[in-house]
Amino acid sequence: MARTVLVTGGNRGIGYGIAQAFAKQGDRVAVLHRGGTAPEGIEGVLGVKGDVTDTASVDAAFTEVEEKLGPVEVVVANAGINRDTLLLRMSDEQWDEVHNTNLKGAFRVARRASSKMLRARWGRIIFIASASGLAGNAGQVNYTAAKAGLVGMARSITRELGSRNITANVVSPGFTHSEMAHATPQKVLDEAIKQIPAGRFAEPEEIASVVTFLASDAAAMVSGNVITVDGGMTMGH
Ligand code: NDP
Question: Are 203 and 14 in contact, with CB atoms under 8 Å apart?
């Protein structure tokens, strides 16, 4: 059954891979990002302008998707940023910016999606976290705290909405080929790869296949979970 899917940050990187996977299986897909353009190379995907740090902008983007594709049944909160530096040097602004996008942004999106999901008595909320949010990472106090927060949010949503066929889960990628990963210093990437039993970084499609499973009817009993997709780097820890 085709669903209406909204992926935040779906114009590039992991979000692009996720949007592509849903489109390939015949869903109605919209991607929300600050530029608002449809992602190139994927047929029939709607681009909507939106900034997850702004509640009114998220609301307007959802309204546009509802008008054009129908109520959002699957939402993937993928938009994320990093502002890495060591704890001692981290400014309030660097903390706030990351939390406002990665944690509060996901909250804004889940909250806006939930009213229509409740009405439909069906919904899938999927947060894209990070292996470093589970294992910790020097230089990422702001980022890892925000990503770890998504786990608590998914579990509380599961307890609030679970009886209405709404699930909330976290997908936790390890290093995955994207602009974000490629902006990481080569020395850090060389060290990181040694910690990955699979011996390589993931491709966005490999994150996407877990996301589409969680969005499916087959995953109806999977909720409040964290699924790591990191080649064995964190093994759930
Ligand atoms: P990219 O930097 O390639 O893409 C980030 C996406 O988020 C872009 O589409 C960007 O849109 C969007 N975005 C950022 N801020 C906002 C905002 N305020 N409002 C709307 N959209 C926004 O990152 P990745 O694809 O690598 O990362 C995707 C997710 O996966 C992130 O949450 C990241 O933390 C997580 N992750 C990534 C890993 C990796 O190795 N790549 C590892 C673990 C987790 P715009 O074009 O408008 O900037």
Answer: no
